[in-house]
């Protein structure tokens, strides 16, 4: 396909505004997928994604579209994830397109993520097509939403496309509009080959499959491919496009979106954001890549059953193959045994990883309270990164602790008369510590606005704050995994909350168990789990041995998800209940 007839575009939308449905309808209308084959939400391949209705990894699909004047075009749709945790993935997809459909639900209107993603897209200087979806619904207010799009982004009313991804209204017009408004890719066919890796998967036969957007030149099977960042080279096993299944083709040309099977075994050998070139005629200038997003949220993941450690490690390594933003580091906690300190992009990312481990790998896990990474300036002038509260060095060596700060955007209905009273919705901008966001902020925001507010955030940098470490002791034994770093003013309250929650979650033992919170050597809170009056076996003494065994077995069942802390059995729920320190 000639470059002038290629269009690369993506869809950006707030969650549930209909991105996947729109993609499905495109696939159907362009005949890319025959109606009988249509699985709902083709682009969301992972089960978990389909169930949760969110899109996690960017993917691509190639479609053919014939315009009313009979000309065939190749449309490459690159999928973008909708959730705030994944804005890194959104920016990868954006770098590979010339156009974006900005989809807004006609019954809802502009949301925080719409704003955040639009701002991101504008940085890439791309053609934006405003699309109002779900116009088939009786509660749709397309005119109000069009006015909002004008107000927030400056789109003209006559630029807005009105569609129903469900019923198909306006879909042909939208395809024609993409051909008309989105510019053809600019790359030069006669320059040395350059392609941007925007995603990758692993295939046990073909190795790492790099999803690429070709900027210049072309690449065929058997060409020698070179990774620009490392200089490593390899013979190309296969090139192809997604239509929507991976389909081998002879040659990938400038402007096209497709894949290159590299045979590499390790994702690091051909990382997302890298530029691929041709070894025999290499380009000298790599394409602008992406800013690598560092993990922002950290938590310890431990197998509930210590014997599952090796399985947990294998599972995490496998997940990491497809998820470069997940970081893993072995960790050994006195209380919890062997596990991993993992880094995530946000809470949602953490939840998804946990759920996949439990479901796909059948692992029972204990997840410690999530924390953020701090920058610690030591008195000797060194700066260290601390992503685990228990690793905070001694206070005497610390000159200052800096914490990650977010810039957040909230969009909410204007029920409280904020700002211009005429406006139906208000946009609020704040800065706040990331750690506060972890402490149930999102749930609170949702419940206080009856679910109407939407939220997005960007990382703004580190800022010094009066922070201290609060330790938790169960039966005089410090549980490192439960240590938290807290603002000095809130430390005692946080400590008390933790201790109270733990007290109510730990069942009575044979002996009295003190639960304490301390800052340094100072105990700031204490609760006691009182001793049990009778033990389970007491009534069986001298009795029937089989009955005794049965009881013990029952107990074992219940203990599956227990951890020994010192001599105390702590159920997994005790740890989980601490995830939500409000
Ligand atoms: P994420 O993948 O979570 O980002 O969601 P999404 O934006 O892909 O939304 P999705 O396509 O899953 O649509 C959300 C819901 O809206 C689904 O129940 C769809 O059936 C419904 N929906 C999407 N488009 C339309 C439409 O045009 N009309 C109507 N009535 N419902 C629609």
Radius of gyration: 27 Å
Strand content: 25-35%
The strand count comes to 33
* Number of separate helices: 12
Function: Promotes mitochondrial protein synthesis. May act as a fidelity factor of the translation reaction, by catalyzing a one-codon backward translocation of tRNAs on improperly translocated ribosomes. Binds to mitochondrial ribosomes in a GTP-dependent manner.
Membrane topology: Peripheral membrane protein
Domain Tr-type G: 4-186
EC number: 3.6.5.n1
How is the topology of this model organized?
Elements: E1 6-13, H1 19-29, H2 47-52, E2 60-66, E3 72-78, H3 87-95, E4 99-105, H4 112-123, E5 127-133, H5 142-153, E6 161-162, H6 171-181, E7 194-203, E8 207-216, E9 218-220, E10 224-227, E11 233-235, E12 238-242, E13 246-249, E14 251-253, E15 257-261, E16 275-278, E17 297-303, H7 309-321, E18 327-333, E19 337-344, H8 347-360, E20 365-367, E21 371-372, E22 374-378, E23 383-386, E24 398-413, E25 425-433, H9 434-448, E26 454-464, E27 467-474, E28 477-478, E29 484-487, H10 488-505, E30 513-519, E31 522-529, H11 545-559, E32 562-565, E33 568-571, H12 572-577
Parallel strand pairs: 1-3, 1-4, 4-5, 5-6
Antiparallel strand pairs: 2-3, 7-8, 7-16, 8-15, 9-14, 10-11, 10-16, 12-13, 12-15, 17-19, 17-20, 17-21, 18-19, 22-23, 22-24, 24-25, 24-26, 27-28, 27-29, 27-30, 30-31, 32-33
The structure holds guanosine-5'-triphosphate (GTP).
Guanosine-5'-triphosphate binds near residues 54 and 165.
EC number: 3.6.5.n1
Keywords: Elongation factor, GTP-binding, Hydrolase, Membrane, Mitochondrion, Mitochondrion inner membrane, Nucleotide-binding, Protein biosynthesis
Pfam families: EFG_C (PF00679), GTP_EFTU (PF00009), GTP_EFTU_D2 (PF03144), LepA_C (PF06421)
């Amino acid at each position: 396909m000639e470059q002038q007839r290629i269009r690369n575009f993506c869809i950006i939308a707030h969650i549930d505004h209909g991105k996947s449905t729109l993609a499905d309808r495109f696939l159907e209308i362009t005949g890319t997928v025959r109606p009988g084959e249509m699985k709902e939400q083709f682009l969301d391949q992972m089960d978990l994604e389909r169930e949760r209705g969110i899109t996690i990894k960017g993917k691509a699909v190639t479609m053919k579209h014939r315009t009313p004047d009979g000309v065939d075009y190749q449309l490459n749709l690159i999928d973008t994830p909708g959730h705030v945790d994944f804005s890194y993935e959104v920016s990868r997809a954006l770098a590979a397109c010339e156009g974006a459909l900005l989809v807004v639900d006609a019954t809802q209107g502009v949301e925080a993520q719409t704003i955040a993603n639009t701002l991101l897209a504008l940085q890439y200087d791309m053609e934006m097509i405003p699309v109002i979806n779900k116009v088939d619904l009786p509660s749709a207010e397309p005119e109000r939403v069009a006015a909002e799009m004008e107000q927030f982004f400056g789109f003209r009313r006559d630029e807005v496309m009105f569609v129903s991804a469900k019923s198909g209204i306006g879909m042909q017009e939208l395809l024609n509009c993409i051909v008309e408004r989105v510019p053809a890719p600019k790359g030069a066919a006669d320059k040395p080959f350059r392609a941007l890796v925007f995603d990758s998967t692993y295939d046990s036969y073909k190795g790492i499959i790099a999803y690429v957007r070709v900027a210049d030149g072309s690449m065929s099977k058997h060409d020698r491919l070179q990774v620009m960042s490392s200089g490593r080279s390899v013979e190309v096993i296969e090139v192809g496009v997604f239509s929507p299944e991976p389909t081998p083709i002879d040659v990938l040309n400038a402007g096209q979106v497709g894949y290159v099977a590299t045979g590499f075994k390790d994702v690091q050998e051909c990382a997302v954001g890298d530029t691929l070139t041709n070894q025999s005629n290499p380009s000298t200038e790599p394409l602008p890549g992406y800013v690598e997003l560092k993990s922002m949220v950290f938590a310890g993941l431990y197998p509930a059953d210590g014997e599952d450690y090796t399985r947990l490690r294998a599972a995490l390594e496998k997940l990491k193959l497809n998820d470069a933003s997940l970081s893993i580091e072995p960790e050994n906690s006195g209380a919890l045994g062997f596990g991993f300190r993992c880094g995530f992009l946000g809470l949602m990312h953490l939840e998804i990883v946990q759920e996949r481990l439990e479901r796909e790998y059948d692992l029972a896990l204990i997840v410690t309270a999530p924390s953020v990474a701090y920058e610690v300036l030591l008195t000797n002038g060194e700066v260290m990164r601390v992503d685990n509260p228990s690793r905070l060095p001694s206070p005497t060596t610390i000159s200052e602790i800096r914490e990650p700060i977010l810039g957040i955007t909230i969009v909410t209905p204007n029920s409280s008369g904020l700002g211009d009273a005429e406006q139906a919705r208000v946009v609020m901008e704040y800065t706040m510590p990331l750690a506060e966001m972890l402490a149930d902020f999102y749930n609170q925001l949702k419940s206080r606005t009856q679910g109407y507010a939407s939220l997005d955030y960007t990382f703004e940098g580190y800022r010094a704050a009066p922070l201290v470490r609060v330790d938790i002791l169960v039966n005089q034994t410090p549980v490192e995994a439960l240590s938290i770093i807290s603002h000095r003013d809130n430390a005692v309250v946080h400590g008390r909350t933790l201790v109270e929650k733990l007290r109510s979650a730990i069942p009575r033992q044979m002996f009295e168990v003190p639960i304490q919170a301390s800052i340094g050597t100072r105990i700031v809170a204490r609760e006691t789990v009182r001793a049990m009056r009778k033990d389970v076996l007491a009534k069986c003494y001298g009795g029937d041995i089989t009955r005794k065994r049965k009881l013990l077995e029952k107990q074992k069942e219940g203990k599956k998800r227990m951890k020994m802390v010192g001599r105390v059995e702590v159920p997994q729920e005790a740890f989980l209940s601490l995830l939500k320190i409000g």
